[in-house]
Amino acid sequence: MKLLTHNLLSSHVRGVGPRGFPLRLQATEVRINPVEFNPDFVARMIPKLHLVEVPKGPIEGYEHDEKFLRQMHHVLLEVDVLEGTLQCPESGRLFPISRGIPNMLLSDEETET
Amino acid sequence: MAFCSKRPEHGGPPELFYDKNEARKYVRNSRMIDVQTKMAGRALELLYLPEGQPCYLLDIGCGSGLSGDYLSDEGHYWVGLDISPAMLDAALDRDTEGDLLLGDMGQGIPFKPGSFDGCISISAIQWLCNANKKSDIPAKRLYCFFSSLYSVLVHGARAVLQLYPENSEQLELITTQATKAGFTGGVVVDFPNSAKAKKFYLCLFSGPSTFLPKALNENNDEEEARESEFTSERVPYRMARRGIVRKSREWVLEKKARRRRQGKEVRPDTPYTGRKRKPRF
Q1: CATH number, domain containing residue A16
Q2: Helix (H/G/I), strand (E/B), else coil: A75
Q3: What is the pTM of this model?
Q4: Can you tell me the ipTM of this complex?
Q5: Is the pLDDT at B252 greater than 50, yes or no?
């Protein structure tokens, strides 16, 4: 699972609305995959992300800062989490990640209104 | 894909139907691969994404990643959701570029609002219409799916969902829940006259209403519209007629007006038209 996807994942357990995001990632096994760099795509996705530590420099005009975009590209698209867990900040519920696939299946109680 | 007589949804839940054997067909069977790839192509076409712009897309019921690979080939980045571990294993073996999630679409899409530029689904959502557990209510699961899908799409984005509806009631159930969730759009039916080639694409728009794409047909000179649109627009007069009580004055006046429109000879309306008669009538 790429970090771009992790950044946008949210807990969909009933009752945990907007606070079920972002999920805390604890990765135990990670792999780096080379992915073709596409500056337009990275620039478009950046506003959607939840960024905690934002480098103060390239905020205005980041679309043209290739170095910044390449860094973001590497972090978002080339880092692949293979094993680990995702934790909901609200409820503490854990979603395990196995072979790169997070298990987002909910139990019956969690889907009831 | 022709299921001889029995539909697979009647046999049990999808995570059991799509076991290792079924998954193997999606990897080995060239006809299966061909059909699925063609449908993925058509769905992407109907999505009308801006040209030359790589997008972040959602693939519902991604299975072994056949449709996802098509998206990757077109330069898009995608996330696939599927309920069958066997199918996802097959996808891992095929080394797909998109991210895979193990999840149940009827429980909602676990993403932040406004994450995706579009969504496709190939042959998946009809599985929501059958209740596999006693606690499942198809309408509720459909609504949960559509409302969460509406939320995770960027405003103005589309979703194109190819499905195999069992009958028109099922299609209506699906479209009703989609409308309730806020979507507009309609069903595009390709090759409606062919039993084998006929394909249903549910095209949903999450923003202001736009045009519905033209369906494919064998004779492309036919300009007949084969799409049924559904919006939350007011229903035309035909349905409003149902509100009028039969035999009332209003009904009589309406009937006379209709006959006048048809060009028939009708007595003029007077204060006595449709008046209450004595009981002996």
Answers
A1: 2.20.25.10
A2: helix
A3: 0.78
A4: 0.87
A5: yes
